[in-house]
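Let's practice the habit of predicting before peeking. Look at the sequence and jot down your guess about where helices and strands might fall. Then scroll down.
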Amino acid sequence: MGLGYVGLPTALALRDAGATVIGIDNSADRLRDIARGAVDLLPLHHAQLACASAGDGFRLTSDATAVRAADAVVICVPTPVDARREPDLTALSAACASVVEHAVAGQLIVLTSTSYVGTTRDLLVEPLRARGLTADEDVCVAFAPERIDPGNEDHTPERTPRLVGGAGPHSARAAAALLAPTASVVRTVPDPETAEMAKLWENTYRAVNIALANELADACHSLGLAPAPVIEAAATKPYGFMPFYPGPGVGGHCIPCDPHYLLWQLGKARQQAPLVATALAANSDRPARITERALGLLARAAVPPRDARVLLIGVAYKEGVADVRESPALEILAGLAGAGADVAYCDPLVPSLRVGANTLHHVPHPHTRPWDLVVLHTVQPVHDLTWLCAADAPSVLDTRQRGPLARAAERAGSGARPAAEVTA
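Done guessing? Here is the structure:
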């Protein structure tokens, strides 16, 4: 139930393991894209999709009544936040209600969508009980949080451990058996709430450390140090440290959203988490700080914003994906455009992008146009930055500070650097 960035790879892994799979999604466009193979997947999963589409054991539909024919139902729908950074449970509530409506005795129902602690009981266990289906007796119910790192071939779901929290021992065993072929190992935890909190803890940990990395990077700049060598030096310690790198902010489906589910639930209980709240606020402010830094560089070059031509390299939230959800690039582009700059972007994975009331299109040959400033936001594997290493190249603002221009210069066989390269 749900064939997005989690649901589709999960469905393909289950099909690859021999299961007959019915993929349900309420978006006709998404179903059409999957049928055409026009989806953002790793090469491995594209191969799985081609094999599944050519066989008889993989069917796509928008009909939720297909749930009745299933032995197991896996719910994989998005759990974003709204404009106030509060949980938007619209899709999750609707999906769970639909599954409950069509559930039959003997089924296994597994929720994978990240949400607040207690979601599985609130949206599945109790509504099923109201229908006369008792969890762990008439039906099995479990929570198994998704663990997918889009665009990263080293962290495919099949190579990643999976957690399962069942509504009882039968539910835990059934869910673990179902998901075993889709993960490197499956670990059961005492109950759904433990698994739900573990998922929130994972991504809150990342959000806090990203904020810390950005803050310490700023401290390095004020002390005349480059952050990357400092981080790499600290990472030589084999315990007690994990490297996090500075960047333009956080994006995607997890880090900008999941911790807010925890804060929202704690707030309802009048419980504070000031460290987490401060970190999330810092992450939210980061794109605006990058925008200010870019405008400052233009001012230093005596280029008024209304006369400035600014290019962003990459607009996806991370390398190797076409996903722009919550991408800091959206706010940076909007901020620069709001200041009067003529903005554009180069990202072959994102053909077009909506920024405010305007639609921007990928610039395929940026080296043929003059720019006053180039902002390195997300350097995709297909990007060629050697043109930025020429002596007459425009000024460059590197938001991630991972040395892409140095690597480009090495490929170009030259030690040249742009006219000005700064980090943010």
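How did you do? The longest helix spans residues 192-222.
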